[in-house]
Amino acid sequence: MISVYDRFLAREDRRPLKVAWAVALVLHFALFLMVFPELGAIQVEERIQEAIVIKRYKPPEPPKQQPEKKIVKKKTARVPIPDPTPDEPEPIVEEAVEYIETEVERADTEFFISGPPSGPPVIDQGPMQVGGEIQAPTKLVNVVPEYPELARRARLEGYVILEATIDREGNVVNVNVLRGLGLGLDEAARTAVSEWKYTPTTYNGRPVEIKMNITVVFEIQ
């Protein structure tokens, strides 16, 4: 049998062997690190993180609106246009007729007056044109022309120029239309002026026939 003392000696003999093994392992490990140093280094991985710049979105400014150009419309004068076939009757309005008696001397008619006549009286050579010493007579009787219904519905306005012959007694014996409007206005003016009455016109102290222009204005009020 192995005594306790022998076991103790056996354990004491093993200690140098264990120490030798430990030293050998340390030397081998140190040699291993010297040969392969990169295996013992700690690798550090660098991660580069890209920075993301976030900008606040600013919407573009709307385009500036140019000021609108104002178009100035010129007012045009209303010219009455006759409508011979009106569709609907218009309300009855009051009519106004104005008369303008003008003294117009024709370019192809000339008068030469040189003082009082001597010798026999002047022979009558027809109606004399008002102008110069031949003054327009004064109207004694006035007849208002009627406004024709067709012209009134068409709202036709304007003036009619007439040439009237007045005898020695002041009666209107002949009427001619120099400028008319139509739609019955010419005949209405001619009929009314034919019934007018004037004072007799004298020349060198004696009554004479005369011609004068009369303007009749038709206007709807």
Automatic annotation (TrEMBL):
- Domain TonB C-terminal stretches: 132-221
Q: Which Gene3D superfamilies match?
A: 3.30.1150.10
Q: Where does it primarily localize?
A: membrane
Where is this chain compositionally biased, Basic and acidic residues type?
Answer: 58-70
A Pfam match is TonB_C
Single Gene Ontology BP annotation: transmembrane transport
Q: What InterPro entries does the entry give? A: TonB (IPR003538), TonB-dependent_transducer (IPR051045), TonB/TolA_C (IPR006260), TonB_C (IPR037682)
Its transmembrane ranges are 20-39
Q: Which GO terms describe its cellular component?
A: outer membrane-bounded periplasmic space; plasma membrane
Q: Does the keyword Protease apply?
A: no
Question: What are the protein's UniProt keywords?
Answer: Cell inner membrane, Cell membrane, Membrane, Protein transport, Transmembrane, Transmembrane helix, Transport
Q: Which GO terms describe its molecular function?
A: energy transducer activity
What is its subcellular localisation?
Cell inner membrane
Which superkingdom?
Bacteria
Give the bilayer topology: Single-pass membrane protein
Region (Disordered), start-end ranges: 58-90
Family the entry assigns: Belongs to the TonB family.
Protein name, entry field? TonB C-terminal domain-containing protein
Q: Which organism is it from?
A: Candidatus Campbellbacteria bacterium CG22_combo_CG10-13_8_21_14_all_43_18
